[in-house]
Request: fold
Amino acid sequence: MLPGRKGTPMESRKLRTGLLFVLCLAIPLLVGIIGSYFTSGSIPGWYAGLNKPAINPPAWVFAPVWTALYILMGFSLWLVVREGTRHAPVRQGIIIFSIQLALNLLWSIVFFSWHMIAAAFVVLMLLVGFIAATALVFRRISVPAAWLLVPYLAWCCFAAVLNAQIWLLNGFLV
Reply:
């Protein structure tokens, strides 16, 4: 497009949609980056010293899995937000999505920075509930958006099992 020339409404809409897509992907990925800041320092020391269950994946698995899950979350959010925030279910979905994303970050802080395994389990149970609630609200707006959250929900359920087993194997550390 030439400088000073206004784009067509279609070009303008495509630009807004593209920027919205990038923003929706960036938000969960940014939360993941912030969470990794609180996580990475504890992995070689505190976390490595914990008794872990046999089903605990190797450490290298977590970064690619979480990256994929954050991308799926962002794409799911985009499918909902692009419907327009003037719709009450979209606004409700954004609020619940934001709460689950905050709980996601909080779990990393509570578990890895504060070393509070029992409290982290409680946060994780809340997180699982809010992911399910997000998927249910998103389903009213976009069925694919809801389905994109299923791997995240499954992984967090698995994480809850790991968290509980680590809690049990380490003498109910708080």
About this structure: The two ends are 60 Å apart (CA to CA). The longest helix spans residues 9-40.
